Amino acid sequence: GENVEQHPSTLSVQEGDSAVIKCTYSDSASNYFPWYKQELGKRPQLIIDIRSNVGEKKDQRIAVTLNKTAKHFSLHITETQPEDSAVYFCAASMGSGNEKLTFGTGTRLTIIP
Amino acid sequence: DAGVIQSPRHEVTEMGQEVTLRCKPISGHNSLFWYRQTMMRGLELLIYFNNNVPIDDSGMPEDRFSAKMPNASFSTLKIQPSEPRDSAVYFCASRDPGQGNTIYFGEGSWLTVV
After folding, report:
1. Is B19 buried (19+), middle (13-18) or exposed (0-12) by CB count in 10 A?
2. pLDDT given at position B97
3. CB-nearest partner of B48 from A45, A49, A100
4. What percent of chain A has pLDDT over 90?
5. What are the backbone angles phi and psi of residue B25, rounded to the nearest 5°?
6. What digits encode the pLDDT tens for the residues A13-22?
7. How confident is the model over B48-99, as pLDDT tens digits?
8. Burial of B109 by CB count in 10 Å (0-12 exposed, 13-18 middle, 19+ buried)?
């Protein structure tokens, strides 16, 4: 089955700096890669996703890049703000609409004011 | 839409008691997932259903855990008997394949077994 590894497990950055979280996956058939943000005591919520037919996707301060050859994808947050502090999870699936989503172990991001 | 609805939100129970967690998926979604979240193990998929049929229950820890989905708008996760190591947040999530693979989580059920 699919295995998703995520690094780092914790990350602290100064407010205004950029943060990068990286994930690798094992199943070359995977073609859907979402990122979820979970604030303390809340549910995980989708912030951005990418499919294997594109290499990069941006949404304001958030971007995701995908390298299918190397089987890794990354989340980039620019101009970080205190409200970006949360746990971020990457995930992967085959994207057929009927497959399960396998999550990484999460990255606790702390923005230092 | 009210989103995925879970109950109870919080439960404290004694070891050995039966625990039943409930979930109502988003209307029109035909896939439903039960996840367990702990500090040590992160987000683990326990079981998922497509069109009310269990597809993959390989994540169910042991026979004390069972899940049902009697209809498209309701699912239960039961633990009997409960043990302290079952203490975790249990999330239910649903998906509409017609909208791609995005899954939407409920608020979670915070279970403490003492």
Report:
1. buried
2. 72
3. A100
4. 82
5. -75, 170
6. 999 999 999 9
7. 999 999 999 989 988 999 999 999 999 999 999 999 999 999 999 999 877 6
8. buried
Indicate yes or no: CB of A105 within 8 angstroms of CB of B42.
yes
**B107 touching A (Cβ < 8 Å):** yes
Residue A99: both structure tokens together: 């497959």
B-proximal residues of A, 64-83, CB under 8 Å: none
A22 closest CA partner among A78, A95, A106: A106
State phi, psi for A101 to the nearest 5 degrees.
-105, 125
Mean pLDDT of chain A: 93
Task: Over range B101-107, report the average pLDDT.
Answer: 90
Residue A12 CA to residue A109 CA, distance in Å, equals: 6
In sign, the C-alpha dihedral spanning A28, A30, A31, A37 is negative
- Cβ pair B106:A43 closer than 8 A: yes
Q: What is the distance between the alpha carbons of residues A53 and B51, in angstroms, rounded to a whole number?
A: 28
Given a contact cutoff of 8 angstroms between Cβ atoms, the answer to whether A30 and A2 are in contact is yes
B56 contacts A43? CB cut-off 8 A: no
Q: In which region does residue A94 sit, left (phi positive, over 0), alpha (psi from -120 to 50) or beta (all else)?
A: alpha
